[in-house]
Amino acid sequence: MISALTAAYVLAGKLRRESIQDAVALYTQMPAATTSLGFPSQAEGTRELRESIEQFIQAPPDEWPRILFANIGGSTLPDKSLTARLMLGCAHFGLAAKNMVGVLGWKTT
Predict the structure, then answer these.
(1) Residue 13, phi then psi, degrees to nearest 5
(2) Residue 80, φ and ψ in degrees, nearest 5
């Protein structure tokens, strides 16, 4: 989710693309924070977050729920009820992120 939100800020023009590395460094600066995000190490977390943010930036926001579901590994869960709820949650989150891009990008004069 942090990847999708960071991508939303980039697409809305609120975070420069060149600053993605700084954002990733902030997210992964503490080993405990990196492992609590589910990464085995800081180096792995840094690499995977950069790649994931780029993946979201390259895809149209309508594809974000699918990407999020795949990144979470939702299709590998043995509990079909949980899988369905997770899929629905990803769809809701994707819609919220898409709306966030629009709100962040909205400029007042």
Answers:
(1) 80, 15
(2) -65, -30
d(CA 101, CA 93): 12
Query: What span, in angstroms and rounded, lies between the C-alpha atoms of 90 and 86?
Result: 6
DSSP state of 17: G
**What's the chain's Rg over C-alpha atoms?**
15
Cα 108 from Cα 49, distance rounded (Å): 32
Tokens describing residue 103: 């709100």
Q: pTM for this structure?
A: 0.80
The type of residue at 2 is I
- 44-103 confidence digits (pLDDT tens): 999 999 999 999 999 988 888 999 888 888 788 888 898 899 899 988 988 887 777 666
53, 3 Cβ separation under 8 angstroms: yes
Q: What are the angstrom distances between the C-alpha of 42 and each of 4, 68, 73, 109?
A: 19, 21, 20, 42
> In whole angstroms, what is the distance from residue 53 CA to residue 97 CA?
13
Spatial contact of 34 and 45, defined as CB atoms under 8 Å apart: yes
